[in-house]
């Protein structure tokens, strides 16, 4: 193997790692939000990467003993 080709496995590993790290979006939000009847609650969500706006986000309400109900749906466009 030539000395130039010896760098290919290392370069491929670095590119794969960097691309995967950049492309992964991380959302930060509380596990749950609760309130009393008639009280306004705020759902917060933030991202740690600069590409978070390209992806959609959905929020669901799940009351005890009930199935989740879609509240907000965004496709990211």
From TrEMBL:
One of its GO terms (biological process) is immune response. Residues 1-23 form the signal peptide. Keywords: Signal. SUPFAM superfamilies: Immunoglobulin (SSF48726). GO terms for cellular component: immunoglobulin complex. The keyword Signal applies. It comes from the Eukaryota. This is Immunoglobulin V-set domain-containing protein. It comes from Canis lupus familiaris. The lineage of its organism: Eukaryota, Metazoa, Chordata, Craniata, Vertebrata.
């Amino acid at each position: 193997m030539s000395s130039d080709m010896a760098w290919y496995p290392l370069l491929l590993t670095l590119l794969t790692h960097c691309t995967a790290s950049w492309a992964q979006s991380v959302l930060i939000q509380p596990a749950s939000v609760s309130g009393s009847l008639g009280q306004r609650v705020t759902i917060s969500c933030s991202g740690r990467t600069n590409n978070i706006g390209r992806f959609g986000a959905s929020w669901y309400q799940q009351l005890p003993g009930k199935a989740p109900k879609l509240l907000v749906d965004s496709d990211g466009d």
